[in-house]
Amino acid sequence: MSVVEYAGRKRVRLVSLAVVAALAVGVVATVAFDVPLESIFTPGYVARSMELAAPITLAAIGGLYAEKSGVFNIGLEGFMIFGAFFAAVGTYFAGGSGPVHAWAGIAFATALTTVLASLFAVLLIRYKADQIVAGLGVWFIGLGLAPFAASVIWGSRNSPRIPSVGRLTVPGLNEIPYLGRIVFDQSPLVWLTALVVVGSWVFLYRTNYGYWIQAAGENPEALDTAGVDVNRVRYAAVIFSGAMAGLGGAVLLAHSSSFVGTGQTMVDGRGWLGIVAYLFGNYNPLGAAVAALLFGGVDMLQGQLQTLNIDLSAKLLELLPYVVVIVVLSGWGKTRVPASVGEPYESED
Amino acid sequence: MFDATVLERLGIALVSILTAILLGLLMVAAAGYNPIVFLNNLIVGAIGSERMLARTLRISTFFIVTGVAVAIAFRAGVFNIGVQGQFVVGGLACAMSILWAAPYLPSGGLGGVGLMLIGTVAAAVSGGLYGALPGVLKAYADANEIITTIMLNFIAIGVVSWLITNPFREAGSTNVQTEPLPASVGLPPVVFGESGFSVVGLVLTLALVAVVAIVMARTRFGYDMMTSGYQASAAVYSGVDAKRNVVATMTFSGAVAGLASALFVIMYQGRFLEPASIHTYGYDAIAVSLLAANNPLGVVPAALLFGGLNSATSYIQIYSDVPVQLIDGIVGIVILFVAVPELFRMAAHRAEFGGEDE
After folding, report:
1. pLDDT (tens digit, 9 = 90+) per residue, A23-40?
2. ipTM > 0.95 (yes/no)
3. Is there a smaller number of Cβ atoms within 10 Å at the N or the C end of chain A?
4. Could A329 and B137 be called an inter-chain contact, meaning their C-beta atoms sit closer than 8 Å?
5. Which of B319, B291, B298, B317 is nearest to B19 (CA)?
């Protein structure tokens, strides 16, 4: 079976699964509750799903770069928590209530998570840390220290209200039925995410450095022989993964009204969904974005059903995305992991 | 981390703990609190009085059992992040089976023992089955068990919470909880009065640790599990069915997680409460097991340490202004350090040979 055929088959399976899931939900909704579908899949629903998908997509892109280069960054959830927290801190201390301050917070968060990711990369690559254990460590540190620092700053694990970035509205074009709301009246962060997705795809599959990243994970010896420093490529990929997860956390914050540090924090498993998203997407940025959109859509679906007063327990509906992850992962779990993931590389010289 | 000697591991664990606590104290100071007072509160909160000691031992007991559950899977090379979910499912099964069986058994001591046995078996079986699920998905559908177990945690907490809110809720109660267990169900407190801790529970726990350690080290089942973890291909050549082995490991691990919740329900809660409000024993157990290098015997001291830290949080929360989430952060830093033995090796190397480059 050729590579193209193989990839094609995967895509067919993913799409068919998504269609089946959507159909099943639709049939249940229409038959059991007599709900017209057009009042569920509104333009607002699609736009909101994209907003929910953006943070997951960014984390997924970061994770797939690290894993492509041969390092499993399982700490995405932790980096997202730090990203959301730093964005809240940055926005809060920027002091105003406009979108400019929100953007300042996002930039601050991305810069700081990049620093943290660099430290993490040193532990993984130079000191050959156990990648799974260290990643879990980052998760726990995020879960503990972000709410701790929030309490020190604000006297509560949650931040006060934080200004958001608002929407990017193109006057006139936003009047187009359906597409207007989705495309021309959308969060700028969704467009930033789309840019990152396409950019990452081009970088990964159309530039030399992109090939080096793939070689670092598939065949580090060959890359070394070709005169490229394997560990340097891996450093770049891991730092990028942390930065993207941090940006994802910041985007999550910018789309909501305050930092929530109680329970599993506001990130609430989205970093893990990011890992699932790039596994579904078979390590392709475009595929990962589609998978993230699927999660965003399912997540939004339960909110949508609730607003329509459909008599299903909210508590059970909230579980829908997690169930979908398990179903899809079981039907689609067999992804081809890069050959050298998890192995520290040591140059022979 | 698996190629270190026992002594090295012990050293790494100790240095990790000390460094993490030191970093924690630095953060306390940076946040504007007195680190000496914090350290004092930490110690007093863990072992300062009989009541606090009982609390530490109670939490440690749950950590030991959940830690062993994690260790079983990790040792076999399977990552069971789902102990929290298995714990929650087992806890509900324990409470409900006891409540359902109570009318059919005598109300005296013998009936109580019978009920506890029923509850324990129900918890172990349901925890085991809930653990088997991601095992089956990993073995036969190649679904990554790290992800599925985390998703199953969310699902277990949500579904059990729904069940306790709706069909299984105590009649007329405004709290999300089941009916209380009959008075005949419970462990005698022995030394520590009404503390939710029983020495009998601790003894049973240590017996469980011994049994698991023997199973892992001395039986065919344990041998197959361990070789699968260290040398998957060698295990297959020696005739181990890798897929069945994964399922068996996860079932075993989940069953032990279920036992932890049986202890939690019978010894401590006396009913089952809103699972979202239960302490994250299953997640902390990962830290316990990792600190113990996934050795069932090593889990005991590691659980005592984390039990003490956790117990102290209640005290610190009441008697100081320092936000207690810091302690979760310290636990995370311990794990991070445990993951990097090389860091300490190099540090030791440098200290010895002074400035010489690696």
Report:
1. 677 666 666 666 666 777
2. no
3. C
4. yes
5. B291
